[in-house]
Amino acid sequence: MSMEQLDRWLSTLQAEWPFTFRLKPWPVAFSFMFMACLATAFCVVVTTHATRVQYAQLQQLEQEENQLNTEWGQLLLEEGAWSTPARIEQIATQRLGMRIPDVNDVEVIRP
């Protein structure tokens, strides 16, 4: 199609329409603003969802931290109980048959 044919076709098209077809700037600006509002709303929804997911992960991690702190405290208590002198004496007496010597069993050696 040549340029002359295109011009003729446009002029006949404009003559047949009941109104003139002109592109005005305000509908373009309105549609641009509408698309910007839609994009902004989408970004708000995505950001809100991401924030909620991260907050749920934070709560889960804090719960795990509390559980691990509790277990650590229990391990420290058990360690303290296992290393007490009374516990060591009890194990030595029961398992190894050791006892504290009587006064008669003690022999003093002098240099």
TrEMBL record:
Q: Which family does the entry's similarity section mention?
A: Belongs to the FtsL family.
Full protein name: Cell division protein FtsL
Pfam families, per the entry: FtsL (PF04999)
Tell me where the transmembrane regions lie. Answer: 26-47
The record's annotation in HAMAP family points to: FtsL
Extract the NCBIfam families matched here.
Answer: ftsL_broad (TIGR02209)
The task this protein performs is described as: Essential cell division protein. May link together the upstream cell division proteins, which are predominantly cytoplasmic, with the downstream cell division proteins, which are predominantly periplasmic.
What is the first-listed, main subcellular location in coarse terms?
Answer: membrane
What is the scientific name of the source organism? Vreelandella gomseomensis
Its BP terms in the Gene Ontology are: cell division
Keyword annotations for this protein, in alphabetical order, are:
Cell cycle, Cell division, Cell inner membrane, Cell membrane, Membrane, Transmembrane, Transmembrane helix
Q: Which domain of life is it from?
A: Bacteria
Q: Does the keyword Zinc apply?
A: no
Annotated localization: Cell inner membrane; Cell membrane
Its placement in the membrane is given as: Single-pass type II membrane protein
